[in-house]
Design brief:
single chain; two-stranded antiparallel ribbon; Nucleoside Triphosphate Pyrophosphohydrolase; elongated; 15% strand; alpha+beta; seven-stranded mixed beta sheet
């Protein structure tokens, strides 16, 4: 569970941590000057860097990039103050420099995103991180523009500008502090909700777990992640039980597929997933034998499939909610329709494996409620977490 929490923290990193040194720099600079701002914000940036390395090790580079950006911005702001390059009000130097940086980030978002993804490990889903980052950038940019425009307007219109400038500074700082606290609380609430939602393991080509991702995020992400799935072929008297997938299904809508299949959830063993998938479809306990595993790429994702066979079933009681979409197919019927496009790509692979096994001809297999040792060796998800 702790590793799942870590995965959620990494895939939903609090963007305010990127901007906290900048926020402190701005606030301290406005009230106590740039020298003090450097003395306070630089140690804070270092502390956050160490904290990120310890807690969010796999996305340390992600935060390091923003730390380097903060250092660059603060140095540029200092140069402009001491050299008076653009002859702007000293009170607005930091805000203007940061605003220009934020505007550039918004303008070149796609290019920046591509470059950052090259240095981030593929096992970390970054879609949430980018969305949250640019949402904060837009809000932060809007607040800075409001402050700069209001400050300049007071200079033009107000007779006693100093009083109104101080009032504006307090309002500006209060908005920033409120925004910071709001973001911290918001991310914590979202993480708590994500922890209660369904997460899928991410595996490599050898079936080893290398990460996890929220299932909705995975199906909508531009990149395809490989997830472990269990699939059970129910065989009886030379026939195979198939199920027609719903027409609103995201993958292979309206096609015939194995009757029992499901994704392995985070923290779930292969055996537990087989039992859960069987119970969702059938009213009886299903005895299964491990047959093989294979990988396949489908429309929204990749599957590392664990294939099981259940045969010699004297009586099978189906769940009434699914029974209308089930049908027994003979080997001849399947062979005659194999190239007509009515079967899923997964089942085509599985039918070939089933034919090679000889189970359709003999109708016999060694069934057991306990899965074979090879399953625990290859894919005991809980022990891998």
């Amino acid at each position: 569970m702790e590793k799942l929490r870590k995965q959620i923290r990494e895939s939903f990193f609090d963007p305010i941590l990127h901007f906290l040194p900048l926020i402190v720099f701005l606030v301290v600079d406005d009230f106590w000057g740039m020298n003090t701002a450097w003395k306070v914000s630089f140690p804070l940036a270092l502390i956050l860097l160490i904290y990120t390395y310890i807690v969010y090790n796999r996305i340390f580079i992600w935060h390091l990039i923003f730390t380097l950006i903060f250092i660059s911005i603060s140095i540029i702001a200092g140069i402009e103050v001491y050299l008076a390059i653009f002859k702007i009000r000293l009170e607005l130097v930091s805000e203007i420099v940061i605003s220009l940086f934020l505007f550039t980030s918004i303008l070149f978002r796609k290019k920046i995103q591509k470059k950052i993804l090259k240095v981030i490990p593929d096992v970390i889903p970054m879609s949430n991180n980018f969305e949250e980052l640019y949402r904060v950038i837009w809000v932060f940019f809007s607040v800075l523009l409001f402050y700069i425009a209001s400050f300049l307007l007071i200079q033009l219109l107000a007779d006693s500008a100093t009083l109104y400038e101080h009032m504006l500074q307090y309002v500006y700082v209060c908005i920033i502090l409120f925004f910071t606290i709001y973001e911290i609380l918001r991310v914590q609430i979202i993480r708590a909700k994500l922890l209660r939602e369904e997460w899928w393991p991410i595996v490599n080509n050898q079936g080893k777990i290398i990460g996890s991702i929220q299932h909705i995020t995975s199906l909508n992400d531009e990149r395809k992640y490989m997830h472990p799935v269990v699939r059970v072929l129910v065989v009886d008297k030379g026939m195979v039980l198939l199920q027609k997938r719903p027409y609103d299904s995201l993958i292979f809508p309206g096609l015939w597929d194995t009757a029992i299949s499901d994704h392995v959830k985070m923290g779930e063993t292969i055996e537990q997933c087989v039992d859960r998938a069987s119970e969702n479809q059938l009213l009886d306990c299903l005895k299964c034998m491990y047959l093989a595993n294979y990988t396949i790429e489908v429309e929204q994702e990749k599957h590392y499939a664990f294939l099981f066979v259940s045969c010699q079933q004297s009586e099978i009681t189906f769940n009434s909610d699914h029974s209308t979409h089930l049908k027994w197919w003979t080997q001849q019927q399947i062979e005659e329709n194999l190239d007509t496009g009515i079967f899923t790509d997964n089942f085509k692979i599985e039918f070939e494996l089933l034919q090679r096994s000889g189970l359709l001809e003999t109708g016999k297999c060694e069934c057991s409620c306990k899965l074979r040792d090879v399953i625990y060796h290859q894919s005991n998800i809980a022990k891998s977490l």
